[in-house]
Design a protein that fits this description.
This protein has about 325 residues and is mostly helical. The protein has a single domain, classed as Up-down Bundle (Rhopdopsin 7-helix transmembrane proteins). About 75% of the residues lie in helices and about 5% in strands. The protein has eleven helices and three strands. Strands 2-1-3 form a three-stranded mixed beta sheet. Belongs to the G-protein coupled receptor 1 family. GO terms for molecular function: G protein-coupled receptor activity; olfactory receptor activity.
């Protein structure tokens, strides 16, 4: 679709192959996932903000995680849905592609940093409960969350800049439903091997770097829980960490398959499946993971529903 010696000023997203009937089915499924994701995370944010029983560091971190999940899926899914409704190939400008990739990677990096911080928070809550409110005070929590956001966005400036310094002269057709970095590098006529290796090292640093405090924290947490004499005490202690631990396994598992690899330019279908898990399925599960096993949140949600019903009756 372009000359052999020019760089793309716009890209064409192939999205999902198949008939219009298949596209309609996929649109319905992804629209449902997206709607539940946005609504569920907004409910979490509102309930935590208005209910005084949830004014603790754990829920303060949860608000930011819900914001990150909502933004991550919003950057990708509306473009995906629009592509499923269009009869032809979807066009995206170079500026929009750069913006989408930068926000997608930055929010993902911020989320990894936040998950590490949440693991440390759970360590303090379980292993040092008497000093929890002193250590995890409002100033500390605000500083930690701010550092996660700043780190997430600053750390992705160079990777995105380096990606778009290449000349995309092979084609301007991306076999994906959004501006995926691996597929972008496949279009370059330049030698991308060194840049891919640096991106691999950065992915290792970010993902493994945030995973280390999580592993260390849960090692101490599990050791402390096993020392609790009563079964009910162990169950209560573990319930405070179960949601975060479940989310960590899902989040890190999918991203390991997509980013922690020396070769970024792998099969398009593989990238699509893993990207769907990260941008659609995981954000969809987040509201359920953090609410269904949390008695305090379910109680606050029930009270909120009762107040809304009472307000509507009046």
């Amino acid at each position: 679709m372009m000359g052999n010696h020019s760089s793309a000023m716009e890209f064409f997203l192939l999205g999902f192959r198949g008939s219009s009937k298949l596209h309609l089915i996929l649109f319905t499924i992804f629209f449902f996932f997206y709607s539940v994701t946005v609504l569920g995370n907004l409910v979490i944010i509102m309930i935590v903000c208005v209910d005084k029983r949830l004014q603790s560091p754990m829920y303060f971190f949860l608000i930011h995680l819900s914001v990150l999940e909502t933004l991550t899926t919003t950057i990708v899914v509306p473009v995906l849905l629009w592509g499923l409704l269009q009869p032809g190939i979807q066009t995206i400008s170079l500026a929009a592609c750069v913006t989408q990739l930068f926000l997608y990677l930055s929010l993902g990096t911020t989320e990894f940093a936040l998950l590490g911080a949440m693991a440390v928070d759970r360590y303090v809550a379980v292993c040092n409960p008497l000093r929890y409110n002193i250590i995890m005070n409002s100033h500390t929590c605000t500083w930690v969350v701010s550092a996660c956001w700043v780190f997430g966005f600053l750390s992705e400036i160079w990777p995105v800049y380096a990606t778009f310094q290449f000349t995309f002269c092979k084609s301007n057709v991306l076999d994906h439903f959004f501006c995926d970095r691996g597929q972008l590098l496949r279009l370059s006529c330049d030698d991308t091997l060194f840049t891919e290796f640096i991106l691999f090292l950065m992915a290792v640093f970010i993902i493994i770097g945030s995973l280390i405090p999580t592993i260390v924290s849960y090692t101490y947490i599990i050791s402390t829980i096993l020392k609790i004499p009563s079964a009910s005490g162990r169950r209560k202690a573990f319930s405070t960490c179960a949601s975060h631990f479940t989310f960590v396994i899902i989040g890190y598992g999918t991203c390991f398959f997509l980013y922690v690899k020396p070769k970024q330019t792998q099969a398009a279908e593989y990238n699509k499946i893993v990207s769907l898990l990260i941008s659609v399925v995981t954000p969809f599960l987040n509201p359920f993971i953090f609410t269904l096993r949390n008695d305090k949140f379910k109680e606050a949600l029930g009270d909120g529903v009762k107040r809304c019903c009472q307000f509507l009756k009046d």
